[in-house]
Amino acid sequence: MKTLHVLVFSAVAATSAAAEDKRQLGAHEHGVGQLDIAFEGQQVAMEFHAPGADIVGFEYAPESAEDRAKVDDAVATLARPMNLFVLPAAAGCSVVQATAGLEAEADHEDGHGHDEHGHDDHGHDDHGHEDHADETTHTEFHAEYLLTCADTSAVDTITFAYFETFPNALEVEVQVISDAGATSFEVERDAPTLDLRGLF
Amino acid sequence: MILRLAFASLSARALTVGMTILAIALSVALFLGVEKIRTGAKASFADTISGTDLIVGARSGSVQLLLYSVFRIGNATNNMTWESYQDLAARPEVDWIVPISLGDSHRQFRVMGTTTAFFERYKYRSGQSLSVAGGAIMDDLFDAVIGADVAATLGYEVGAPIVVAHGLASFTEHKDQPFRVSGILEKTGTPVDRTVIVSLEAIEAIHVDWRNGAQIPGQSTSADAIRQMTLEPQAVTAALIGTQSRLQVFGLQRAINEYPQEPLLAILPGVALQELWQIVSIAETALIGVSGMVVVTALIGMMATIFSSLNERRREMAIFRAMGARPRAVLGLLVLEAVLMAAIGAALGLALLYAGLFIGQPLIDSAFGLWLPIEPPTLREVWVLLGVVTAGAIVSMVPAYRAYRMSLADGMMVRT
Fold first, then answer.
1. Same-domain status, B88 and B156
2. Nearest of B209, B263, B251 to residue B231 by alpha carbon
3. For residue A67, which of A62, A83, A90, B130 is within the disulfide window of CB 3.0 to 4.6 Å?
4. pTM of the prediction?
5. Which one of B250, B260, B274 has the shortest CB-CB distance to A38?
6. How far apart are the CA of B271 and the nearest CA of chain A, in angstroms?
7. Using one digit for the tens of pLDDT, what is the confidence trace for B76-123?
8. Are residues B293 and B368 both part of a single domain?
9. What DSSP designation does A89 have?
10. Which chain B residues contact residue A182 at CB under 8 A?
């Protein structure tokens, strides 16, 4: 999966040689979300990113009323972190602030660098792009949470109910910063709990 | 009674038994040694940096950035411009930032340009700071602080002059600007021990008369003239960053990774280190597998010697039986002998390991910068030793069962 990120960058570099302006495109991998958690004192900050495909199942700009309703629903769901990433009750956590939204990572002029799907047979890179502007747009849901916990050291596990809510999501890459330093984990659909013992 | 018999029987065949025990001891020492080096290397890497929230450098791979900025392994793909560095330093989230400039060397040691903040901010082994063993932290432009290994290997003392070479494996030396050792650091067990630290301005200063990698002929600016110049670096190799609050680390990391003016990469040292372990883990598993197989081989060797000893002990076994020993006693005797061999082998292996550690510790430290702590055996190691003894007992069951079934008839029959 790591090589995919490299692919994206090299694809961008190859096509931007003619242009003067700076271009970069972040990595985007369907099925994989990203959750960053920082513990400090009684505060827990979380930042969550997930591809639109995982959350609503499509990545074009919402067109129909149905699409729009789906996106609104998803944003509302993502704004309730305690239902998605369940912290132990013993920690006594409550949400101070939660924001969620949809952001598009579009690159209309070029529409390149989309081999990260692994859908090479679609031939995204080869055909003309102007008429496919929507198809080559990637959307990402983005959420930020701030929690306070009576006892952060009681946060020894996090249960990812997220996978039940969003059936397209397969994996979340988690980075955690605590007093013990920074570490990373991978939480997958098959084993949707994150073991944080040993971090406090 | 049986125990006495077992001991007597083993000592009667001292040579073969001794060889078997030696094989087990060596294999156990190898297995435990591999384990020690593995955990020692991990701990030593993990202890090298602490207290730094982010490391920033040119956009490459996170493992690569970690290796060249902290461990001085490999080289940077690109430098980071001084403008970007100052941009970052001015960000509100940044509590402190320490630049690192690499690229020159002194003998086999790397020269690192940095600010004096490095000595306050760089922490190793869960929060320990660097301390000066002799002399003082650099004060003058041409002062250098050297690590403990640099001082020990080259025999430098405070006040000694040193000349910095251009590049890493080059014969062009910056002879016109000699440095002076102003301080020697305490040993840390980190790559700092093998580093010559000078100020960021000094890195610029030694290149004052240099253009395009070569000295301009006939031009030599005196040290005093250089002291008068304002030396602003063009670029740094990497920077260590501490944030105001841990909650801002991810936001700052994202901002740096998406910094539009220059492709930069910010990494969390702990996460990058984990990625490194993932890469190394295959080799680690292979190493453990091989050393495990060596233990198995030694145990099978023991089984073979017991088997062959059965032949020469046919009479002995028959006499035991004739004197009224039950078949079970014969079986017990053989298993007990095997357990004794395995236990002595395991104990000897442990002794060999510690002897090896005592002798090898300073050598490994000076050669690889890897400090292997000498500690009492861990629970895991105790389990390994018990496992070897148990495996020895199980392995000996095969020949023992044979003796159990055949001891009387076999030994009494006259064979030609």
1. yes
2. B209
3. A62
4. 0.74
5. B250
6. 5
7. 888 899 999 999 999 999 999 999 998 888 888 888 999 999 998 998
8. yes
9. G
10. 53, 249, 268-271
The answer to whether residue B346 sits within a structural domain is yes
Whether residue B115 is contained in a domain is answered as yes
Q: Which residues of B touch A43 (CB under 8 A)?
A: 247
Determine whether the interchain pair B247/A36 forms a contact, defined as Cβ–Cβ distance below 8 Å.
Answer: no
Say what the alpha-carbon torsion angle B373, B377, B383, B384 is, to the nearest 10 degrees.
60
Locate B211 and state its tokens: 């253009």
Cβ contact B249–A177 (<8 Å): yes
| Cβ proximity of B145 and B133 under 8 Å | no
Contacts of B271 in chain A (CB under 8 A): 175, 182-184
Interatomic CA distance for residues A182 and A199, integer angstroms: 9
Whether residue B50 lies within 8 A of chain A, CB to CB, comes out as yes
Q: How many CB atoms lie within 10 A of CB B377?
A: 14
Q: ipTM score of the complex? A: 0.70
**Boundaries of domain holding B331:** 2-45+281-410
Nearest residue to B65 via CA among B194, B197, B241, B249: B241
Picking from B101, B113, B100, the residue whose alpha carbon sits closest to that of residue B239 is B100
Instruction: Determine the residue of chain A that is closest to B245 in CA distance.
Output: A40
CB-CB under 8 Å, A24 with B263: yes
pLDDT of A71-91, one tens digit each? 889 999 999 999 899 999 888
- Residue A172 has which token pair? 């979340």
Burial of B315 (C-beta count, 10 Å sphere; 0-12/13-18/19+):
exposed
Residues of B with Cβ-Cβ distance to A178 under 8 angstroms: 246
Q: For residue B290, give the 3-state DSSP assignment.
A: helix
Q: Which residues have CB under 8 Å from B290's CB, separation 6+?
A: none
